[in-house]
Write a structure and sequence with these properties.
The chain is of the alpha/beta class. Among the domains are: about 40-90 and about 125-250 and about 350-405, Alkaline Phosphatase, subunit A (3-Layer(aba) Sandwich); about 255-345, 2-Layer Sandwich (Gyrase A, domain 2), CATH 3.30.1360. The protein has helices at about 5-25, 25-30, 50-55, 55-65, 80-90, 95, 130-135, 170-185, 200-205, 210-230, 285-295, 380-385, 415-440; strands at about 40-45, 65-75, 100-105, 110-115, 140-145, 160, 185-195, 240-245, 250, 255-260, 270-275, 275-280, 300-305, 325, 330-335, 345, 360, 370-375. An 8-stranded mixed β-sheet has the order 6-5-7-1-8-17-2-18, sandwiched between helices. A hairpin with a 3-residue loop joins β11 and β12. The radius of gyration is 31 Å and the shape is globular. Its cofactor is Zn(2+). It is found in: Cell membrane. It is an enzyme of class 3 (hydrolase). It comes from Paramormyrops kingsleyae. One of its GO terms (molecular function) is metal ion binding.
């Protein structure tokens, strides 16, 4: 290769090393800089494509000056408690232990329900939520109704928190959080949860345009109120805000009902958790129960725990029951009931209808930037980076989210290597082409060649 080619290759490789080292050192730089407060907001059941279907002027204003991620792949099962705990731990449900709305732990011989979740931290202690890590780093935190935030996980609640009460309005939750932020400058992380549009989606179904329009207008008005409060209290330009959700919603129907008692005797099993991912604890022979359930309905798939697909990350925990039933989208699994919700979630997390979105605004984020997709567990390492704290072991990746940040390079190591290899291939091709052309062109120049005269020129006299 020509010397210039080697110099180019060395320069490209040096650039790659420099960018890679810069990425590896980003946490250290962030920790040494002034840390802006961070607010994480979740609107339960906000399906990603609601952004395309409904007018949401306040939300659009929010992300037009910030960033938008069109859809997130959330964790299985796509329910509220597993996904909210994944957002603040970066872990799949099998790793953090909050696996469903109702769980049975055979080791403790106890049952968990969302209705009694706040009374015992033992269900939550398999993971460390980000507010615990922030407080262990010397800062303070605040929470308004976030699932698990009123539990003393690892003997810690957020510094300021509200006991869960669905009757407390969104505005009151916002006023409490902004008041804590203004009064106490040590507060670095705040988390806020709101129940809509999930409640409306369950009651009427996401295909009910009239009711969903009302619910989403309320959500958008709440976002506008949040923005107004942050501005009026001098926080808007100082705080990083992430708005997201836990899952989407799909339409259900009385015509799509799977009743398990029609397939086997109720005395042979205990239904720990219902639709659309049912957890079954056999009381008799496991194989007999499984065989009956596997033939039960064409729109329901039965798995032995050990055979649950790896991509779901839903088998390595004692709280996962021996048999798991997964309904097709829009189908409902019950024991013998005939009632159902017109909208539901919890289905396979590869379904677009189950995906939420993400929008963010603040001094750390780019302006008017858009990404198509990443995983919801990637939000946790992003938040750790923004807060300058070390990550606990997690299933997320900061490299997936770094493009959202104004201070970060969007090129990862694989992309840089591809650019270098591509550049070298182009350079090699051009060098070979130059050599080929040079060897093909005849050499017509004859320096120092003797002047050739016509034969009769020598016989002509110089002077007549």
């Amino acid at each position: 290769m020509a010397p210039s080619g080697l110099m180019f290759a060395f320069a490209a490789w040096s650039s790659m090393v420099t960018i890679t080292q810069a990425g590896n050192e980003s946490h250290a730089r962030n920790a040494s800089a002034a840390i802006s407060p961070l607010l994480l907001v979740s609107f339960d059941g906000f399906r990603a494509d609601y952004l395309e279907k409904y007018p949401l002027p306040n939300l659009r204003e929010f992300y037009s000056d910030g960033v938008l991620v069109d859809h997130l792949t959330n964790v299985f099962i796509t329910k509220t408690f597993p996904n909210h705990y994944s957002l603040v731990t970066g872990l799949y449900a099998e790793s953090h232990g909050i696996l469903a709305s109702t769980m049975y732990d055979p080791v403790m011989n106890r049952t968990f329900s969302v209705h009694n979740h706040s009374i015992d931290a033992v269900w939550w202690n398999e993971a460390t939520p980000i507010w615990v890590s922030v407080q262990n780093s010397g800062y303070k935190t605040a929470a308004a109704m976030w699932p698990g935030s009123d539990v003393a996980i690892q003997n810690k609640t957020p510094t300021y928190f509200m006991k869960y009460d669905s009757k407390v309005s969104f505005r009151d939750r916002v006023l409490s959080l902004t008041d804590w932020l203004v009064r106490d400058e040590a507060v670095r992380l705040t988390v806020l949860y709101w129940e809509e549009p999930d409640n409306t989606g369950h009651t009427y179904g996401p295909d009910n345009v009239t009711e969903m329009t009302k619910a989403l207008k309320e959500v958008d008005d709440n976002i506008g109120f949040l923005m107004q409060q942050l501005k009026s209290k001098g926080l808007w330009d100082k705080i990083n805000v992430i708005v997201t959700s836990d899952h989407g919603m799909t339409q259900c129907s009385p015509d799509r009902l799977i009743q398990l008692d029609k397939c086997l005797n109720a005395s042979t099993y205990t239904l720990v958790d219902e639709t659309p991912v049912a957890a079954v604890l056999p009381r008799t022979n496991v194989s007999l129960v499984f065989n009956s359930l596997s033939k039960c309905h064409s729109h329901m798939k039965a798995y032995m725990k050990t055979d649950i697909p790896d991509r779901l990350h839903y088998k390595n925990n004692v709280r996962i029951q021996p048999i798991i039933l997964v309904a097709d989208e829009g189908w409902t699994i019950v024991q013998n009931e005939k009632h159902l919700r017109l909208g539901d979630h919890g289905y396979d997390n590869s379904l677009p209808s189950m995906h939420p979105f993400l929008a963010a605004h603040g001094p750390a984020f780019r302006k008017g930037y858009r990404l198509p997709h990443f995983n919801s567990v990637d939000i946790y390492p992003l938040m750790c980076h923004l807060l300058g704290i070390s990550e606990k072991p997690n299933n997320g990746s900061f490299s997936s989210t770094r493009c959202l940040l104004a201070s970060e390079s969007c090129l990862d190591l694989a992309s840089i290597i591809g650019i270098v290899i591509g550049s070298l291939m182009v350079l090699t091709t051009l060098t070979c082409l130059f050599i080929f052309i040079r060897n093909r062109v005849p050499n017509s120049s004859r320096p120092f060649a003797r002047l050739e005269l016509q034969e009769d020129d020598d016989d002509d006299p110089l002077i007549d």
